[in-house]
Every structure is written in C-alpha cells, then in structure tokens.
Amino acid sequence: MTNKPPQRCTLPKHKILRRADAIKQVFAAGTFIKGKWFDVVYLCPASAAGQIAFAASRRARNAVERNRIKRKLREAFRLEQITLPKTCCAILIGNPKIFQAEVQAVRVEMKRVFRAAGLLT
Q1: In 30-80, where does DSSP find H-type helix?
Q2: Which residues have CB under 8 Å from 66's CB, separation 6+?
Q3: pLDDT bucket at 1, cuts 50 / 70 / 90
C-alpha cells in the first residue's frame, strides 16, 4: 500500500484566455448561451488553444461583487476540470444571482451549459 498524495485540481495559467484581441474575437463572432447563474460565449476557430476567460456582468455594483463572481466561477471550473476542446475559446460571464448559489450547484449548471453548447463529449 503506497501513500500517494491526493491529486491537485489546478487551473494552469496557459488555460486562461488573456489576449485582448482573442477576447474581442470571441465576443464578436462567438455563440452565446444563457445559463441560470452565468452566460457562456464560445468560439471554435482553428487557431484557438482551448482557453477560458472569466468575467462579471455589468449589473454587479462594485469591484468586490465582480471579484466574488469571478472567483466563484473559477473555483467551480477548477473543481469540475472541464476540458474544452483544443480548438475552442470560451468566456464565462457571471451575474449577481450567483451569490445565492453554492459552488456545487454552479458546477452542475456549468456541466449542463457546456453539454448544451456541445463543448463536452
């Protein structure tokens, strides 16, 4: 019997979509799907690298709320370990309703929305 350390659920930096031109391209030409606590905009061009970005709705009143929304989305995505197809970029846009949700519920909704978008197999 070996004592293996538990596998860590991490979100590596190379999986985060940070380039402004790529984000603009996803918003301009991407497909929009509305969820219960967040919306997803995704685009699957041939040159993408399977990255994701997290954003907050403009309805969030201040920076504290926007940061909490993005933190909850990142945590749910990290725990779910959803692997996007290698040629897709997605942006998750959380709204203030997400404060009422537990992370587990957000994870379930995230799976449902990504499956509806055809990004999960």
Answers
A1: 63-80
A2: 56, 60
A3: low
Q: With the CA atoms of 21, 112, 76 and 86 taken in that order, what torsion angle do they form, in degrees rounded to the nearest 10? A: -40
Secondary structure of residue 91 in the 3-state scheme = strand
Rounded to whole angstroms, what are the CA distances from 117 to 25, 35, 53? 18, 11, 16
Give the pair of three-digit tokens for residue 10. Answer: 């991490």
Q: Give the Cβ contact number of residue 112 at 10 Å.
A: 13
What's the angle, vertex CA 56, arms to CA 106 and CA 41, rounded to 5?
75
Q: Summarize pLDDT for 80-107 with one digit per residue, the tens.
A: 877 777 788 999 999 999 988 999 999 9
Element (H, E) at 107: helix 103-117
Residue 54's H or E segment, with its range, is strand 51-56
pLDDT digit string, tens, across residues 29-64: 999 999 999 999 999 887 777 889 999 998 888 999
**Antiparallel, parallel or unpaired: β 51-56 and 31-34:** unpaired
